[in-house]
Amino acid sequence: MIKSEAFARICFFGDHQDYLNLPVISGTIDRKITLTATPNSEDKYILHLLDLDSVIVININENFNNIEAEDYFRSSLSILQQAGLVFEQGYTVEITGNIPVNAGVSSSSALVVAWIRFLVQAQKTPVAVSSTQIGQWAYAAEVGFFNQPGGLMDQYTIAQEGLLYIDTQTGSTSRLKPHLGQLVVAESGIAKETLTVLHNAREYGQKAIEAVQQVNPNFELYTAEPKDYALYLDKVPKVYQRHWYAAVHNYHLTLKAMNALQSASTDLFQIGKWMNEHQYILQDYIQNTPKAMVLQMEAARNAGALGAKIIGSGGGGCMLAMVTEKTKQKVIDAFLSNGAVAAYEIQLTSPL
C-alpha cells in the first residue's frame, strides 16, 4: 500500500503577484488531501473520489497528450512520462480530504501534488525526487499543460510545505519564521471565480506594465518603488490604472512582511495592519472581493481580528483572519453571524 498526502495553502501576502514575476508569502495549513493506493491486477488506476462519490478509471497505457482541460490526473501522467517515469502497475486509489473545494485554499493543487507523490512512490525502480521538483511538475501539469493564467505559488508552496517567501521570477524559495499569531479561516459559501478573476487581473496588470515600458524600456517591476506609481500614472491607460497601483503597492507590502518574518521577533499588530492594507488593495483595486465578504471581514476586525484578507484569486471562497487567544472565538462568531458558512482555527504546518 502507498499513502500520499498534501496540505492546503494560504497566501498571506502577494495575491495576484506571482503571474507578474513578483514575490509571494504563502504557507501550508493543517487541511489536507489523503491518497491511499493498493496494487490491483488490472493495467488501470481506479480512482475513488470518496468525498464526491465518483470513480475515475485511467488505463496506464493511454496516450496522455490529448487531454481535456482540467484533467490533472492525466496531465500529471503526461508530464511525468516526459520526465522519464514509467507506469507499469495498476492501483486502486482512494482519495479523500478536508480542504474546502473551490474556495481559494488550493484543493486542486493539493490533489495534484498528492497524486504526483504517489506516482513517484509507485515507480518499480525507486526515483529520488526533491520537493522542489514535485512542485515544478505539479505546476507544469496544472498550469503549463493547459496554458492557464495562474502562477507557481500554489504548487511550490504545497510541495515544499511550511511558510515560504517565493521569488517567482527565479522559482527560488526562502523559509520564513511562522510568527503570525493564531489564525482563523472562514468559508464564505460563495464559489470563487478563479479563471475569470485571474485572467482579467493578469491581463490588466501586464498591460499596465507594458504601458510604462513603452515610456521607459528599462523599467522592471521588481525594482519599482512606491513613488513610481505616481511617476508613471499618466502613462498608463485609465482602464489599467487600478492594477498598476495594485502591482506596485502590494509588492512593497510583501517585501515589508518578508523582512518582518525573517526577524527573531515579529510585531503582530504591524503584520495585521499590512494584511489589511493588502486586502483593501485587493478589494478596491483588483476588485476580487464580493461585498458580502468585505462585510464579513469588517465584522471580524471589529471583533478583534488584527488583520483579515480574502484567500486565493477571489470572486468568492475563503477568508483569513489573524487573531489572538482572547479574540479568536469572537472573530469566529463574527464571521458566522455575518453569513460565513463555517469558521475555525487553523495551524501552519512544518516543512517536510
Task: Please characterize this protein's 3D structure.
The chain is α+β, with helices and mostly antiparallel strands and 352 residues long. The chain has 2 domains: 2-175, Ribosomal Protein S5, domain 2; 182-346, Alpha-Beta Plaits. It has helices at 72-82, 107-121, 131-144, 153-160, 194-215, 227-232, 241-262, 268-286, 291-302, 328-337, and strands at 2-13, 24-39, 44-49, 54-59, 91-97, 163-167, 172-175, 182-187, 307-310, 318-323, 342-346. Strands 1, 2, 3, 4, 5, 6 and 7 form a 7-stranded mixed beta sheet that branches. α1 (72-82) packs across α3 (131-144). The mean pLDDT is 94.
The CATH topology of the largest domain is what?
Answer: Ribosomal Protein S5, domain 2
Whole-number tally of structural domains = 2
Distance between the termini: 21 Å
The secondary-structure class comes to: alpha+beta
Overall pLDDT metric:
94
Q: What ranges have pLDDT less than 50 throughout 5 or more consecutive residues?
A: none
Gyration radius from CA atoms, angstroms: 21 Å
